[in-house]
Design brief:
14 helices; mainly alpha
């Protein structure tokens, strides 16, 4: 099928991109002796990309390749190793966790031979353990979240200069800001207006004395973003569109992982409020409804 060929070629392209960026990161590491070049945003900084959105694409390619039964075994294995390694280095906590979870489910239910199933599940488990047990920047990104101060973030009237925020704390701040913005029935019903939340977010963060970069952040949550700007009416329409897409994805099953990743990522990122996000999500969302059931 033409769609599968496109996805296969896109996966190969992402593998090539991964190899180029990793090789370049290694050279930068040996030149400057800074291991940060090997991970997260620094890994994709030569192309001025965002690690989370690149992880979104890589995760889709990885999971598509994992369930593709038409690909040659050797090529499939190479693609999975390259994409999996690249995804780990990108170290997006949400996407990495969801990808591992979906991979384990796919291996358990889709692979028929018990030996192959056991080997792949063992590999996934061993990789996860190695990441979480041995000291490395990826482990540190997960461990640092345990230092989240929930009470302080939700109740402090003004934060100290130079305070360091965990990823959860930064997003909890946006939940707090959202709660303060939605202070009238009109806003609750229809929101503050499309893209009109920026000014109010900046005002709230200025009062809280948070880092300047926070003042230009969106809500980092697609559901809150739509609720704040389009109200409960917009949120209802958005949930309806996701439910219809999820129902459709059970028929075009190789796009089901894409929908699960997207719905999960919407919790921590305003994906379709960013150009990179809306292009990828929009194209696959449209494709989901234009494919017929024969493309399963």
């Amino acid at each position: 099928l033409e769609v599968r060929k496109i996805f296969n070629r896109f996966s190969v392209f992402m593998c090539c991109l991964a190899l180029v960026l990793v090789i370049q990161a290694v050279f930068r590491y040996y030149k400057y002796e800074f291991e940060g070049f090997l991970y997260y945003h620094e890994l994709v900084s030569p192309l001025e990309l965002n690690a989370i959105y690149v992880s979104y694409l890589v995760s889709f390619c990885f999971l598509y390749t994992l369930q593709d039964i038409e690909d040659k075994v050797i090529l499939k294995t190479i693609k999975l190793l390259v994409l999996g390694f690249f995804l780990i280095l990108l170290s997006s906590k949400m996407i990495l966790t969801i990808t591992i979870f979906i991979s384990a489910i796919m291996v358990f239910f889709r692979i028929k031979r018990n030996l192959h199933r056991l080997i792949l599940l063992g590999f996934i488990f061993l990789t996860s353990v190695l990441i979480l047990v041995f000291a490395n920047p990826i482990k540190n990104r997960f461990v640092s979240e345990f230092n989240t101060s929930y009470v302080e973030i939700l109740n402090e009237k003004r934060f100290e200069n130079g305070r360091v925020y965990t990823g959860i704390e930064a997003r909890l701040l946006q939940v707090r800001v959202f709660n303060e913005i939605m202070n009238s029935p009109k806003k609750f019903l229809l929101g503050v207006g499309l893209d009109a939340s920026k000014k109010e977010i900046k005002e709230k963060h200025t009062r809280l004395n948070t880092p300047v970069r926070f003042h230009t952040y969106n809500f980092h949550n697609q559901y809150l973003q739509i609720f704040a700007e389009l109200g409960i009416v917009g949120l209802f329409m958005f949930f309806t569109s996701l439910i219809l897409a999820l129902k459709r994805a059970f028929k075009i099953n190789y796009l089901l992982p894409f929908m699960i990743i997207s719905i999960s990522l919407f919790i921590t990122e305003s994906v379709i409020w960013r150009q990179r996000g809306i292009l990828f999500f929009g194209m696959l969302y449209i494709l989901l409804f234009t494919l017929d059931n024969q493309n399963e």
